[in-house]
Amino acid sequence: MKISRVTFSVVIFGILCASATAQESKSMHEPDPLLNQATAQASHEAEGLLQRALHLADLYNWPASRPHFTKAQELFNAVGDKRNALYARLGSIRAGADPAPITEQSYGLAQELATNPILQSDKELRMFCLIVKGDFDGEIDVPCNAARLDGSGSPRERTGEYEVAISRTRAIRFCRFL
Known about the structure:
- The protein is mainly α.
- The chain has two domains: 33-99; 101-178, no CATH class.
- The chain has helices at residues 2-29, 33-58, 62-79, 82-94, 102-115, 117-121, 123-149, 155-158, 161-177.
């Protein structure tokens, strides 16, 4: 009778140990539900900040959108959302968070458009990047265009042929981007 009790105790002990090991293994592989909830909340907050920043950008109030873009970028990076982190980074660049010269920013965006796989596959994000780059390129051309608006320049430029040639060149460049 003692042998059967000992055997029974050993079997029960083995089952309990196996059960405890399985529980521990399961808890190590499953993420903490509170962590999932915090990540979802951070992602939701970041999405709200990005939408607010984009709304301000649509109103062409880039300086007011800058803190929203930068905070959204931090939150998206924290949760590992590369696409939206890039979206927020592009917005913060346009909002003036990067103090680099405009020509360098335009060149950097061109390189990003050519090499970043997210920008090559996501049409909405690529269009936003092109808009940001176009804003910078437009600011680069402003002094040249302003000098022509006051009537200076060659007669050919004053007749409007120059503007037609420039618009055709820009259209060709835009098509190359696509």
